[in-house]
Every structure is written in C-alpha cells, then in structure tokens.
C-alpha cells in the first residue's frame, strides 16, 4: 500500500488510537494504490 493506515490517520488528523475506521482507511489506501498503478 502507498500509505499505511497510520500515515492516512496523520494526514486526516485522526488519533493513532482511533481504530474504528481502520478497515475503511485500508480500503481507501488500496483503492488509491490501484488507481495510481493503472
């Protein structure tokens, strides 16, 4: 993945301990990576 969930949280100014949306953030990260690779 281009960005780790921690890096995405940093960019979105979310607390590192905030884990409620981790699966969603991972999905977003994979979507961005797939989009940039094509």
UniProtKB/TrEMBL annotation:
This is Phage gp6-like head-tail connector protein. It comes from the Bacteria. It comes from Salmonella enterica subsp. enterica serovar Rubislaw str. A4-653.
């Amino acid at each position: 993945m281009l960005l780790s969930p921690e890096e995405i949280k940093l960019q979105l100014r979310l607390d590192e301990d905030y884990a409620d949306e981790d699966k969603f953030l991972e999905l977003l990260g994979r979507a961005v990576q797939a989009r940039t690779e094509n």
